[in-house]
Design a protein that fits this description.
TIM Barrel; 8-stranded parallel beta barrel; two-stranded antiparallel sheet
């Protein structure tokens, strides 16, 4: 299933001090999911549920059920027992079976055995509620280290949320990340990017593009992961660069999402031999 990731609306929701006059809420993102023809949304930590009004979360549950839109959750920090308990409660109330987790600085400062011990204490609660945790590869964590963590946890309740572009910052090319993490993947974050050459010839930077317009081999990744056979949902995100024109920025997020949805559907058809 293809779904909307809330980071596709990073600027419309507001992020790190850059808050629009009318930030999108949970129900706004649900409407955009429906408008894009998608049946899944993943709320990440750019719109954390524990900071939302409980009434808004309750209304989200009702509207998602009425519209037939599935929900996945996201949070930062893997070893905060209170936060994990809170998000497990949200998962149950929203009929959600996956929580995407990014390991934060506090997690990474801990000994690996300590992390494993703290996480294993949640096995039973996760299993009883049919919820899995998907750890996302991120900028400060090498993919092999994440693969080793999941391997050592040795539980079907834990896997990887494979982001195809995040680990460029950790010195990995997208297909290298896919090769390392594919065996453990239970969720997929799909985005695209390209190199932008400095106008003065002093190096280059990596900038976002709509899916299918950059250097990420979308079909090649699908061929490796086989998402349909493995029941791996594909969550669409993007790295739309910031600009000062709030209205154009919000329109661009809508436009990039539609382009990315079309590219993902086309790649899936090619992957499944339906061109």
């Amino acid at each position: 299933m293809i779904g909307l990731g809330s980071f596709a609306y990073r600027w419309s929701c507001g992020f790190k001090g850059r808050i629009p006059q009318k930030p999108l809420g949970l129900l706004d993102l649900l409407k955009r999911t429906e408008r894009a023809g998608l049946e899944l949304i993943q709320f990440a930590d750019n719109i954390p549920l524990h900071e939302r009004d409980p009434g808004e979360v309750s209304e989200l549950a009702k509207e998602a059920s009425t519209k037939g839109i599935a929900i996945e959750l996201g949070m930062a920090g893997a070893t905060d027992a209170k936060s994990l308990d809170t998000y497990l409660e949200y998962a149950v109330s929203l009929n959600c079976n996956l929580i995407r987790v990014s390991l934060d600085a506090e997690d990474l400062a801990k000994d690996q055995n300590q992390i494993i011990g703290e996480l294993k204490s949640f096995d039973k609660a996760l299993c009883d509620n049919n919820v899995r945790i998907a750890f996302e590869n991120h900028f400060a964590l090498a993919s092999q280290d994440l693969a080793n963590l999941v391997k050592l946890l040795n539980s079907k309740q834990y896997g990887v949320c494979l982001d195809v572009a995040n680990s460029i910052c950790a010195g990995e090319w997208p297909m290298e990340t896919v090769r390392i993490l594919a065996p453990y993947a239970i969720n997929l974050h799909m985005k695209d990017c390209r190199f932008a050459i400095d106008p003065y010839g002093v190096g280059f930077s990596v900038v976002g593009t709509p899916l299918g317009q950059g250097m990420v081999d979308v079909k090649g990744i699908l061929d490796v992961l086989k998402p349909k056979e493995r029941h791996i949902n594909i969550i669409l995100e993007h790295w739309l660069p910031w600009n000062e024109d709030e209205e154009s920025l919000m329109h661009a997020e809508d436009d990039w999402l539609i382009q990315s949805v079309n590219a993902a559907k086309s790649a899936l058809k090619l992957h499944q031999g339906m061109s």
